[in-house]
Specification:
By secondary structure, the protein is mainly α. It has one domain. Helices cover 86% and strands 0% of the residues. The chain has 6 helices and no strands. It is elongated and about 55 Å long.
C-alpha cells in the first residue's frame, strides 16, 4: 500500500517537475544531451501532462538550447575543429552542404534522428544566419514533438 501511494504521489508531481525536466532536456539537447525530449513527451502526455504545454516547453527549451549550440559554434567552432584535427576537406564538404540546403537541411536534421547538437554547432561555425537557423529548428522539431506527445496520449488511452 505504501508503494502504491508513493507511485501516485510521483505521478501527481509530473505536472510540476515534468515541465521543468522537459525544459532542461530541450536546453541541453543542442549543447550536449544524448537523449532528446521525445520519449519524455510520450511518457508525460500518457501520464497526464498537458500535451500542448509540454510540447511548447520542450520546443522553447530546444530553440534556446540550439541558440546556445549555435553561439558555441560561432565563437569557438573553427578553433575546436582544428584542435580535433578535422581535415579541412571534410569541413569544406559539410560547409557546402550547409550552403546548398540551408534552412531546409537544418529543418530536416531537426526532424530526423540526426543529433541537433552537431547541426547547431556547425550552423554557427559556418555562419548560417541565426534567425533562419532558429526558425528551421522550430520547423523541424515542432512536428516531431507533437507526434511524440500525440503518440503518448493515444497509447495511454488504448491501454
Amino acid at each position: 500500500m505504501v508503494d502504491m501511494l508513493k507511485i501516485l504521489r510521483n505521478l501527481a508531481q509530473i505536472n510540476v517537475e515534468g515541465y521543468w525536466g522537459l525544459l532542461a532536456l530541450g536546453l541541453s539537447v543542442a549543447v550536449y544531451q544524448p537523449v532528446a525530449p521525445d520519449p519524455f513527451l510520450m511518457a508525460g502526455s500518457g501520464l497526464g501532462m498537458n500535451p500542448y504545454f509540454a510540447v511548447s516547453v520542450a520546443l522553447a527549451g530546444t530553440i534556446a538550447g540550439s541558440a546556445g549550440g549555435y553561439a558555441l559554434g560561432r565563437f569557438m567552432g573553427r578553433r575546436v575543429l582544428r584542435i580535433l584535427r578535422i581535415k579541412e576537406r571534410y569541413l569544406q564538404k559539410v560547409e557546402a552542404l550547409f550552403r546548398r540546403y540551408g534552412v531546409w537541411g537544418v529543418a530536416l536534421a531537426a526532424f530526423s534522428p540526426v543529433p541537433l547538437r552537431e547541426t547547431s554547432w556547425l550552423a554557427g561555425t559556418f555562419r548560417m544566419p541565426p534567425k533562419p537557423f532558429l526558425m528551421a529548428v522550430a520547423l523541424g522539431t515542432a512536428p516531431r514533438y507533437c507526434g511524440a506527445a500525440l503518440l503518448g496520449y493515444l497509447l495511454s488511452r488504448a491501454l
